[in-house]
Input
Amino acid sequence: MKKLALIAAVVTSICLPMSVSAQSVNGQFNVSVRFTPVCTVTSATPDIQFTYTAFGASQTSASTSIALQCSRGFGASSVAAFDTANPAEGLIGTSNLRYTLSTITKTAGTPGNAAAVGSNGTADTPSFAFTATLPQQAGSNVSSAGTAVSVTRNLVVTF
Output
């Protein structure tokens, strides 16, 4: 009987302190991010296409535009410009036809919403529109007669 009491006392002394001494501890950690804001093109700018006969009437293209999605707060500050030293005009390939580009018109679009718990937030959505004009002119270069020639231009958006 003494042995049984002794075993019970030993088991109790071992088990009881474990359940009584259960504790919790906190480990702190940081959540951080290195964020790079961007604007990306969401709709490709359609090509501007003319069909022109020398000395024909001046032609103006339909308005064409580029749509963007920008990190919130950057859509409002975005600006666009054409890519060359003389940005408002150029020559179309070997046809030597001069074209002009209109002033770029910005549409602010929808301002983005901030993220919140349970919501990712939304992007700013500006767009930029412009037209091209092909004035009455002669053109040149027999080698390009009847063949579509083109020049690649870029609309540069800074935010």
In short: Helices lie at 2-20.
